[in-house]
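User: Good morning. I'm curious how BIS(adenosine)-5'-pentaphosphate would be positioned relative to this chain. Could you predict the structure with it bound?
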Amino acid sequence: MTSTGKPDRAAWIQGPSANCDPRPERVQAPWRLILLGAPGVGKGTQADLLHQRLNACHLSTGDVFRSAGSRAECDQSPAMKAALQYMRRGDLVPDSIVWEMVLERSGCLRCGGGFLLDGFPRTLAQAESLKQLMENQRLDLTAVLNYRLPLNEIVARLSGRRSCQGCKAVYHVTERPPRLADICDRCGEKLFQREDDQPNSVKVRLEAYEQSTAPLIEFYQGSRMLVTIAASGSPEEICERTIAALEDWRKRNSEHNFRNTLGPKP
Ligand code: AP5
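Assistant: Good morning! Here's the predicted structure, ligand included:
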């Protein structure tokens, strides 16, 4: 367990041979959510806050790639080395590599505590594969949260982001600074600036989003799973907005007979 007292996502980050400590509790109707939105819109920040309210685990494909990147080169598979090259440039990692990595961790999708998928799916092919997998496993997706923010605010968020190399917590130099410069409030590890937050990579990432990921909005709209959320304001305000939208969505879809109860405010 990390010093945050939260599940450490070991099985997700390290792979199927790792166990999470503590194991998420099985709940009667787990939240199974996908977080969609442009790079830098705040998906990771919201996933972290939503985890505290809904107890579902935060599963980020970007975190898996970054963790693999921090291992010694000799410990990286050829597929992972190739994936990291794509990532550094800001390009999407090919679907086959991403899907293999998710499939290895599909136990996390079956987890009784639910999940908050951040950064996956990102292409129509990935969305189709996930749909198939969930149908085969008889798992229901609760909703897809689509976060929206004007481009200039997205760029400002990306250029000031700092991330913890230990517990993966995310900060912003002006909007969400750590108490001590460059040190994580939660675990005391050093903060770093992501390689793909450099201006050239940001441009490529935003283009990749428009071309490959934005079509997922229509895909999920078509299956009536989409809940759109304005991502302006403080992270806590956006989280409250998300919870309200989910409650409203659940009421409107009462035939699904959701029995979830929202956790207390952290
Ligand atoms: P990934 O790690 O998924 O990156 P991303 O989608 O580009 O999203 P980000 O992590 O950049 O942003 P975010 O929306 O989570 O924002 P955050 O909360 O950090 O993927 C990285 C790369 O991996 C991809 O480019 C690709 O190469 C590869 N990859 C991963 N998954 C893949 C897949 N499925 N298929 C193919 N390739 C894949 O917030 C950003 C900043 O804003 C922070 O500094 C934060 O503190 C600040 N902030 C957040 N909210 C607020 C607020 N309300 N007010 C002010 N500041 C805020």
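The mean pLDDT is 89. The chain has eleven helices and eight strands.
Let me know if you'd like a different ligand tried.
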